[in-house]
Structures are given as C-alpha cells and as structure tokens.
C-alpha cells in the first residue's frame, strides 16, 4: 500500500486558526491507482496532498507512506522517503530568471549530489532528458527560454515536465489544468495518466473540473469541510452526489474552462515542491 490513513486529522498550518483542515480521514491508496480529489474551494484537497507528501504533520490519527510512519522516522529517513514522492503544486515553484531546462531538471535534485546540482546550474546535466519531457507537452522549443518569458499555462506545463523527469513512485498533483484551455487540459491529463501507468505509480490529482474527473479517473474522492463525503468508483458517482457535495458552495467547473493566458505574467512566489 502506498498511502494508508486512519482517522487522520490536520490543523491549518501557518495561521493562528485552531480549526481542522482535515478531519478523521480514513482511506488507502495502492500502487497504480489513479484517484481524483474533488470538492468546493477550501474543502481540504491541497492540505491532503501536502499531508501525503509528508509536508504537513498530522495532529491526530495515523499516516503510513510506503509502509512507514514518516513522522516516526529520523529527518534523514524522512528525506529519503520523500524521494519516492513528487508533489506538483498548482503554482509551480519556478525561479523567474532561471532557464526552463534548469527548472525542469530540478526534478532530478533528490537523486544528485550537491556538487552535481551546483554544476548543473552552470551547464545543465541532462538537457536531453528535459527536452524529451517538455516535448510531451509541446514545449520543447522553450528549453532555453527564461521562466519569466513563459505564459501561465506554459509555466504550469513546465512544472509537469519536472514531474516527468523525477523518479517518483507516487505523484501528487494539485490543480494541474487550472491555467489551460480545454484542448491543452486533455492533452496534459493524458500525459500525466500515461506516465503514472507506465511506472505503476499511485497518482492523486485534485481537480475543479468535475466532468474530467468523472470521465478519466477510475476512483473519485469527494471532500467537503475537511471530511470525506464519498469515496467511490466513478460509475457509482451520481449527479445527486455531486450536487450534494457542492451545495451552497461555488458551482463546480464542468470542463476545462480556464483559458491559458499567453500574455507575460509576473512570476509566482516560490513554494515548496518535492
């Protein structure tokens, strides 16, 4: 089993708010499973992904990752465990003045020595690997572009290319389609799912595009107010279940309605990524 949660609860981090972001979650995810997380904004989807990535420490309950309790390990052991995970935030942590090739190859950092990583800043260590990853998202021509010259959608796909060069056995992906038009969204989702299948990796993906989740993921977990409302095979998820999940919340997006912005955007703040 890749992930095993039993009555797991997590409080909001970085605030004085004592409220729980996740409440008594019990679930398991096996190798090769592809799971979509859906639910209204603030449901706890991002917090769950960060918890699975061993970035948030639970306040109650238990979490096992690849059979180990990460918060009972030493720092070195937990760092080694994180090498088997890849967390792709909605806003990829791409330094704005960095070349795309270097930003993509950051996905290899957990497997490189410090000397090798520093040397790669000056002369990229595996440019062909980065080129091939970018090509799967039709961005190969951006290999030596600066990150701050990319559009929002291009930066998002650049972050996905970073995932491809990693050796992770579990892929945790937060809103990977939010800056993409419908065609690019489908292409990007197909690449991610093909990659997960080829490595028999567990893939957990949060989505606001409910219809894409229902069409493309065998298993769907609905979250609301930090609790699991349903955890079911897609054929068992009904329109009534979706309506109840989003009742009195902002209406879910039923397609990849967000359009890629081709104008040059200010680079996002850097956030943690594995």
Characterization of the model:
It is a single chain. The protein is globular and about 50 Å long. By secondary structure, it is an alpha/beta fold. The protein is 32% helix and 21% strand. The protein has a single domain (3-246), classed as P-loop containing nucleotide triphosphate hydrolases (Rossmann fold, 3-Layer(aba) Sandwich), CATH 3.40.50. Helix 5 (127-135) packs across helix 6 (152-165).
List keywords for this structure.
disordered C terminus, Rossmann fold, three-stranded antiparallel sheet, single chain, globular, 32% helix, alpha/beta, 274 residues
- Give the CA-based shape: globular
Helix content: 25-40%
Specify the number of helices: 9
User: Based on the structure given, which CATH architecture is correct?
Assistant: 3-Layer(aba) Sandwich
Q: How are strands sequenced across the largest beta sheet?
A: 5-6-7-3-8-9
What is the CATH fold-level name? Rossmann fold
Using the CA coordinates, give the radius of gyration.
Answer: 18 Å
Counting DSSP E segments of at least 2 residues, the number of strands comes to 9
Domains counted in the coordinates: how many?
A: 1
Summarize the structure.
This protein has 274 residues and is α/β, with parallel strands linked by helices. The chain has nine helices and nine strands.
Topology:
Blueprint: E1 3-11, E2 20-29, E3 34-38, H1 45-52, E4 60-65, H2 75-82, E5 85-88, H3 100-105, H4 114-122, H5 127-135, H6 152-165, E6 170-174, H7 182-199, E7 202-206, H8 210-216, E8 219-224, E9 227-233, H9 239-246
Parallel strand pairs: 3-7, 3-8, 5-6, 6-7
Antiparallel strand pairs: 1-2, 1-4, 8-9
